[in-house]
Each structure stands twice: as C-alpha cells, then as structure tokens.
Amino acid sequence: MSLAVIGMIAGMALGFAGYFGGFGAFLLVAALGAVGFVVGRFLEGDLDVGDLFRTRDDRRR
To answer: Which residue spans traverse the membrane (predicted)?
Structure first.
C-alpha cells in the first residue's frame, strides 16, 4: 500500500472522528495514530528506542 493511500485513510479516520465525536475524539484518534506509527516503526526496525530518549548534546555528535 502506498504512503498516499495510507495518508488518505488516516485523514478520513480523523475526519470521521472529528465529525461524529467532536474535537476530543479527533485528538484521541490523532494521538493513538501517532503512537501506532511509532510502534510500527520500532517493530520494523526503523526506529531505535534510544533515539527517543537521547539528550540534546548526544544528537550533535
């Protein structure tokens, strides 16, 4: 599945959540989508847990 199709599905899910559930549901769906994205990247091996918790000084090196 291409990234454009995935983006379209995510946008439609956020739109439905916003329309039927209000702004709170929109934020909940967006937050859970972001968590799912991070977990998916971690499981695929594209993301290291240390990347999320590294201090600012370590990134410059």
So the answer is: 12-39
pTM over 0.70: no
CA 59 to centroid of chain Cα atoms: 22
pLDDT tens digit string along 27-49? 998 888 888 887 777 777 777 77
Of 5, 55, 14, 50, the C-alpha closest to 32 is 14
Q: DSSP string spanning 16-60?
A: HHHHHHHHHHHHHHHHHHHHHHHHHHHHHTS--HHHHH--HHHHT
